[in-house]
Design brief:
319 residues; 17% strand; Metallo-beta-lactamase, Chain A; globular; alpha/beta; 9 helices; 4-stranded mixed sheet; 7-stranded mixed sheet
Length: 319
């Protein structure tokens, strides 16, 4: 699909979310925005769609990443090695396979498992949670970018930091035609999951991704967006209306959680099993993230209490 100087390539993934979108943007430099997932099927689809555009991987001059999740970075490993890669500083440890970071990741989640009162073998649970990383890549991040930076060959686009779905999440906005390259920050059909991730500096406080995500959504209400090209699914034309719906729906979900907590105090894991009885075992990281998102929100609006027991387990109850 072509939209002026933006060409969308749709690549398969092995994940429940389905296909992922990556974009070729023609400008001073031929830019690839996001890198798909590292599977032969995705690579072959990428090559075929590039060929239909009259291009080869060698024609791409730079890669810019919206965030570090495997379905957005995997094919970097198979692209030409001299391609510069731009992304948020939080991308670096994930794509460079920084073992000290992943050791801190394990420690971070083991602490959370104790606080959440998760049942099971922590090491086995961690291995399952990190299994999707086999679809990621191992490749250096050439340049770190943040809000306000100007990317060479991509000068028409403003970098905006939008943490929430990922700590590394960026979007790119072009004022002259109101175009947003939105990554997974805004999706037409589903709401983005604010995923629990460790801080870049292990001693820092745990990020609260739902609160970050809400702030990042509200940030876009001040931006004149006429079309948003998304990481999954179709483009969004009425971005502000969608944002308002997402914010309202998240509040409603949180109030449903509050009603459950009016019955009796519960741990995060107990609540997760109630909210996601059919999938929590297979998607523990995702479901714990979603539950924590609503608890963080309810705490932020002073709707619930948190009590930590001597063993470190936290219980939540409605006020």
């Amino acid at each position: 699909m072509e939209h002026g100087d933006i060409m969308k390539l749709v690549l398969p993934t092995p994940f429940a979310v389905g296909d992922v979108n990556v974009y070729i943007v023609k400008g001073e430099a031929l830019t690839l925005v996001d890198g798909g997932v590292k599977t032969e099927e995705a690579w072959n689809a990428f090559l075929v769609q590039l060929q239909e555009l009259g291009m080869r991987p060698e024609d791409i001059e730079q890669v810019i990443l919206t965030h570090h999740h495997p379905d957005h970075v995997g094919l970097l490993e198979w692209l030409p090695k001299d391609l510069p890669v731009y992304g948020h500083k939080y991308v670096r440890p994930w794509i460079e396979k920084d073992q000290s970071f992943f050791s801190a990741y394990d420690d971070f989640y083991k602490r959370l498992f104790r606080e959440f009162a998760v049942e099971g073998d922590f090491n086995q649970l961690l291995a399952i949670m990190k299994s999707s990383l086999r679809f990621s890549c191992e490749r250096p991040l050439t340049y770190e970018i943040e809000e306000g930076d100007v990317i060479p060959g991509f000068e028409d686009w403003v970098v905006l930091e939008t943490p929430g779905h990922a700590q590394s999440h960026l979007v790119f906005y072009r004022e002259k035609d109101g175009t947003l390259l939105a990554g997974d920050h805004v999706l037409a059909a589903i709401s983005s999951n604010p995923l629990l991730e460790p801080p870049l500096i292990p001693s820092d406080e745990r990020p609260k991704p739902q609160l970050q995500y809400n702030d990042s959504l509200r940030k876009l209400l001040d931006v004149d967006i006429r079309i948003a090209f998304t990481g999954h699914g179709p483009e969004v034309k009425k971005t502000h209306e969608l944002i308002e719906r997402r914010l309202l729906r998240q509040h409603e979900r949180a109030m449903q959680v509050k009603e459950i907590l009016e019955e009796k105090p519960l741990t995060t894991f107990q609540l997760t099993k109630i909210l996601f009885p059919a999938v929590y075992e297979k998607q523990l990281g995702l479901t714990l993230s979603e539950t924590t998102a609503q608890l963080d929100y309810l705490l932020s609006v002073d709707a619930i209490n948190k009590r930590v027991e001597e063993n470190g387990a936290a219980y939540f109850s409605a006020r």
